[in-house]
Amino acid sequence: MSFKEISHTADVKIQVCAPTLESLFSETCNALMQVMYGPVRKGIVKKEIAITSTDTESLLLEFLSEVLFVSEVEGIVFSDARVRIDGLNLHAELAGEPFDRDRHALGTEVKGISYSGLSIRQDANGYMVDIIFDV
């Protein structure tokens, strides 16, 4: 796991580190699912998402917002996200399983993804982002 929760007054703030931009997006998706549903997830249902945005931070925000929307509307708990990024275009292949109240009720309801303070940084070790999930 390459993400950790950081103290925040009202919402859930997560810091994610990854060696590539694609893995940063994938790990941030995994962090969102972990916050919402807890650690028990499998990948038997497949879903694809394609997004185009105006900058990298907006691309991440729109990707996570779409994952949140699909998860809630279609009742899918995602366990894996394989992300490809070409410029400001993203294509993700998601794997998950149908929501099961007995197995997935350990998390916190996330109402949205916040743009507040969202900044993707890169250094010699890879990429890092701090992101807030509105709860």
Shape: globular
Approximate helicity band: 25-40%
Distance between the termini: 22 Å
Sheet bearing the most strands, described? 4 strands, antiparallel
- Percent of residues in beta strands? over 45%
Q: How many strands?
A: 7
What is the element layout, followed by pairings?
Elements: E1 3-6, E2 12-18, H1 21-37, E3 45-52, H2 56-74, E4 76-86, E5 89-98, H3 101-104, E6 112-123, E7 126-134
Antiparallel strand pairs: 1-2, 2-7, 3-5, 4-5, 6-7
Helix pairs in contact: 1-2
Quick synopsis:
With 135 residues, the protein is α+β, with helices and mostly antiparallel strands.
Keywords:
135 residues; alpha+beta; 4-stranded antiparallel β-sheet; 3-stranded antiparallel β-sheet; 3 helices; 30% helix
Overview of this protein structure:
- The protein is of the alpha+beta class and 135 residues long.
- 30% of the residues lie in helices and 45% in strands.
- The protein has three helices and seven strands, in the order ββαβαββαββ.
- The protein has helices at 21-37, 56-74, 101-104; strands spanning 3-6, 12-18, 45-52, 76-86, 89-98, 112-123, 126-134.
- It has a four-stranded antiparallel sheet with strand order 1-2-7-6, covered by helices on one side. A three-stranded antiparallel sheet has the order 3-5-4.
- A hairpin with a 2-residue loop joins β4 and β5.
- α1 (21-37) packs parallel to α2 (56-74).
- The longest helix is centred in the middle third of the chain and has 19 residues, at 56-74.
- The model has no long low-confidence stretch (mean pLDDT 93).
